Amino acid sequence: MSKPLLLLTRHFPTAVEARAARDYATIPNAADTPMTGEEIAAAAAHTQPAGILCAAGDAFNATTIQALPESVKIIATFSVGTDHIDLQAAASRGILVANTPDVLSVATAEIAMLLILSAARRGGEAERMLRAREWAGWAPTQLMGVTLENKKLGILGMGRIGQALAKMARGFGMEIHYRNRNPLPESEAQGAIYHADDTAFLGAIDVLSMHIPGGAATRHWLDARRIAQLRPGSIVVNTGRGSTVDDVALCAALASGHLRAAGLDVFDGEPRIHEGYYTTPSLVLLPHLGSATVETRDAMGFRALDNLDAVLLRGEAPPHRVG
Ligand code: DGY
């Protein structure tokens, strides 16, 4: 029996592509850049795949999904986030959508912790000073940051990534607060403090770490009004989705000093980033590295292939179906 056709929108890790090639006739994308909706639709129309293995940044809007050929049974995304896929449009076409939860929680929490540490201890500024050959030697008041011990970390969105971060931050002596739809018995048992209200949450913390999904409902969740509710001198980090932060309001709060520092791994409209970010010294910037470890990217690929295999090789439901 011939292997099902699988369209790959990106280059994936070697072990992932090797496993894909074992079970599927794979159709690679020669250019390793996010595909536009038109490019995806054209490639699918040309090749008539049974499944598509895609990644965050590939634009599966309603028009693209409407244009996919009948042959496409499943879109498996190499990500936990699904805001790049119009789930309603896929459902209306009877196309399954599946993602890769769990396996990237620790790696993403590590990047959140790295941003918290870099923002609190001015890692970005220090590195830039050295590389600019501007260091004149140790000085008692040079680049002083703040200690994390005894500070209050506010986790917005206590999913798997938020919980992994809470575990790490406890090791630094931070007190954990969280804002979530519901209190979580396990987090409560570990002493994390639940907030049912945004205002009380923002007013209680020293560091805000954002872990909410993108999409219309969360667009610019962190706006000027909510930033003003944070205590003066607070730190903000975002490893969720860039669209949840109002870039202009964040830049203004860093420029005024209301916020001490911030760290961002995700950007609204990435890879484009807000112009003001380039020139804000108290901001640490990373290029969406949350899940970028060798172990995690392999695990994400295998999980995406598990989803594809269930549907295309065994005629079953994908284990991580989102739509
Ligand atoms: C995800 O999995 O959603 C991450 O943002 C990386 O793609």
TrEMBL record:
<dbReference type="Pfam" id="PF02826">
    <property type="entry name" value="2-Hacid_dh_C"/>
</dbReference>
<keyword id="KW-0560">Oxidoreductase</keyword>
<dbReference type="Pfam" id="PF00389">
    <property type="entry name" value="2-Hacid_dh"/>
</dbReference>
<dbReference type="InterPro" id="IPR006140">
    <property type="entry name" value="D-isomer_DH_NAD-bd"/>
</dbReference>
<dbReference type="InterPro" id="IPR006139">
    <property type="entry name" value="D-isomer_2_OHA_DH_cat_dom"/>
</dbReference>
<comment type="similarity">
    <text>Belongs to the D-isomer specific 2-hydroxyacid dehydrogenase family.</text>
</comment>
<dbReference type="InterPro" id="IPR050223">
    <property type="entry name" value="D-isomer_2-hydroxyacid_DH"/>
</dbReference>
<feature type="domain" description="D-isomer specific 2-hydroxyacid dehydrogenase catalytic">
    <location>
        <begin position="34"/>
        <end position="322"/>
    </location>
</feature>
<dbReference type="InterPro" id="IPR036291">
    <property type="entry name" value="NAD(P)-bd_dom_sf"/>
</dbReference>
<feature type="domain" description="D-isomer specific 2-hydroxyacid dehydrogenase NAD-binding">
    <location>
        <begin position="114"/>
        <end position="290"/>
    </location>
</feature>
<protein>
    <submittedName>
        <fullName>D-glycerate dehydrogenase</fullName>
    </submittedName>
</protein>
